[in-house]
Amino acid sequence: MEQPISRTCLYYSHVTLGAKMEPFAGFSMPIQYQGIIEEHQAVRTAAGMFDVSHMGEILVSGPDAEKYVNYLFTNDVTDMPEGKVLYGMMLHPDGGVVDDLLVYRLFGGKGFLLVVNAANIAKDAAWACSLAEKYDVTVENMSEDWGEVALQGPEAERIMLEVLGLDMKELVFYTFTEARWKGYRLTVSRTGYTGEDGFELYGSPEAVCHIWKALLDAGVQPCGLGCRDTLRFEAGLPLYGHELSDTISPVEAGLGMFVKADKGDFCGRDAVARQKAEGVSRKVIGIELSDKAIPRAGYPVFAGGEQIGHVTTGYRSISTGKSICMALVSAGYAALGTSLEVEIHRKRISGTVCKKRFYRTSYKKIASGFKR
Amino acid sequence: MSKTIEGLYYSQSHEWVKVEGNTAFVGITDYAQSALGSVVYVDMPQEDDHVDAEMEFGAVESVKAASDLVSPVSGTVVEVNSGLEDSPSLLNEKPYETWIIKVEMSDPSQLDNLMDAKAYSEYCESL
């Protein structure tokens, strides 16, 4: 069914800036402003900002909130302190992924904030509600009331201080704080989807518009979804629908560390516990090609003349210039150094299995009392 | 609005053709390069390959996507622009000065199926 196209609170700013707009997950979103390459480099070398207001926010509160989130979510929230963020997934009983998400443990015992993919908001909200029946919790889909801006890059911390007056020096990777800016209440986490240091700022649409304008006036590069994808890809981060999906489990995707199979029961546990114990038949791997031809999602991967999988995401890396991809292949071909071929425009291009993290990430993981 | 050059032939798939004698130089239009964004790779045929009118002969690729190149004429590739291997962005910078392949035409009457600059401009505006 064709859904009506939504606009984020920053739509008119994007249009005014001359962004190339395209439909994405039911929203009209900016793909690029100046160009994907310039925007990608800005984030790697200085800073860039993204309108990610299309992301979904689901609030969970009530006496059973912790028990419920632990059943819904693959990571362990049992000893999670307030102010901490965890990455993980919601699973189908067969281990397929409903969505991957961030879980924030809110201050003041207010429960949890789940931040989910825009494309999956309706599915996730329905899923979360269906699992809530046995718990004394309230599940609220706040997606339309919240905006979000991501400020990413090595200069992000300085810009937060100098432009917004928010001192984030002490904020550790994967934690968040509640801040006030010009009377607006903001939730600011040291998280992102680029492989760089940076922040994600949540607030009312009005607050987000003012923050965006302040950052724009200070000369921060606006960045579109085009480079959001090239950046996350180089950092080896999965995108739902490509490296994770209803039919690709986190163990197959190499993300088993975010699945705490021994924490107690959760939806999908039996399936992923078995996969962890017995191994999986398919794995998501990295491939570096010997040629300049560019592998794209869906292109077939071969070994010894036989198709053994397909590309899930591929690019000519903007940071390294190499043609690289992530691919879902038979587990027997997943070892580092294995020779494979990717079919590109009817030609078989040789490549080698490599690590999925194609680019060295630079997160700010300050040693502290926090435990994962 | 995108630029066109008088005297060239244009296809609906946004290639241009410049004719010298029986040789056709084939490139992509300003409209095409602008729609694609920064070109990072050009997949080209080899010399002596045969190309057919309205058939795919390669691809131009931006960061995000691959877009087929469709030959406006049939014939034999007599030269490919090897400069594009190292500088694919020439297609963005100088679309009408940067040919991709040179084709010895087998049927020059196929040029009659293509548009002139004025018709192509109107076609682009209608998209």
Automatic annotation (TrEMBL), chain B:
One of its GO terms (cellular component) is cytoplasm. Residues 23-104 form the Lipoyl-binding domain. Keywords: Lipoyl. The modification N6-lipoyllysine is found at residue 64. It holds the Pfam family GCV_H. The glycine cleavage system is composed of four proteins: P, T, L and H. This is Glycine cleavage system H protein. It comes from Candidatus Cryptobacteroides avicola. The gene is gcvH.
